[in-house]
Amino acid sequence: MISRPPTVLVAEEQSLFRAAICHALAQCGDLDVAGEAGSVDETLEQISRLRPTVVLVDADLPPRNGVSMCAHIKGMELATRVVVMSDAPDHGVLQAALEDGADGYVSKQAALDELLAATRMVAGGKAFVPADMLGVLLRTLIDRRREEDAVLTRFNRLSRREQEVLVLLIEGLDRSEIATKLVVSADTARTHIQNVMRKLNVHSRLEAVVLAVEHGLVDRIQTREG
What is the rounded distance in angstroms from the CA atom of residue 179 to the CA atom of residue 193? Predict the structure, then answer.
């Protein structure tokens, strides 16, 4: 039985560039063009209908950001894999794309061979990141891991009651409401809040809330309680 080549959907705003990519793919004997799209909604509709192996997504695909669409595509629970394309090499776009579930990344300034190589690798179940961007990506991931570890260390200093207070702060309760909720005095609630800020090494309740949300601390609390 002869297996079919991987199919590729090209989701690109600029029609001329989109046509050029489709033409290049059509010349490859090992890749098939499934279709093309010029907007986020059209892309999602075609993915659902055509179920391509790979979709090449313009990072600035209108009317919504193409990068943020990666998570939506992954949420469709199809086998479709995603390569994000940006106008120029951009470490921020690369990081955001990977965080949202992209399997590969290329710059539109790259040679055509690199785009085809990325498509083939991703179609084969591998990830693709340009070699000259790997260093910064790895450094970013290492720095982020260290930051996560530092935040977790501070979080682990909180007592169970202080964790409860942190959850209530995230829910938007003020000191008097926290006191009522926990059936303690306002002074005791204030002390708990101050302890939370001190142990998390933040200077305000808002900063504590932002830190907790960004690092998923509430999920950790719920997991422990479960």
Answer: 10
* Opening angle at CA 92, ends 17 and 112, nearest 5: 30
Domain residues for the domain of 104 are 7-135
Tell the residue number behind the tokens 């600029």, with chain if given: 14
> How many other C-beta atoms are found inside a 10 Å radius of the C-beta of residue 172?
9
> CB of 158 within 8 A of CB of 199?
yes
Please report, for the domain that includes residue 124, its CATH number. 3.40.50.2300
The stretches of 125-216 forming alpha helices (DSSP H) are 131-155, 160-170, 175-182, 186-200, 205-214
Question: Are the C-beta atoms of residues 166 and 211 closer than 8 Å to each other?
Answer: no
11-59: pLDDT as tens digits: 999 999 999 999 999 999 899 999 999 999 999 999 999 999 999 999 9
If asked whether residues 209 and 102 sit together in one domain, one would say: no
| Amino acid found at 212 | A
Domains of the chain: total = 2
Domain CATH for 212? 1.10.10.10
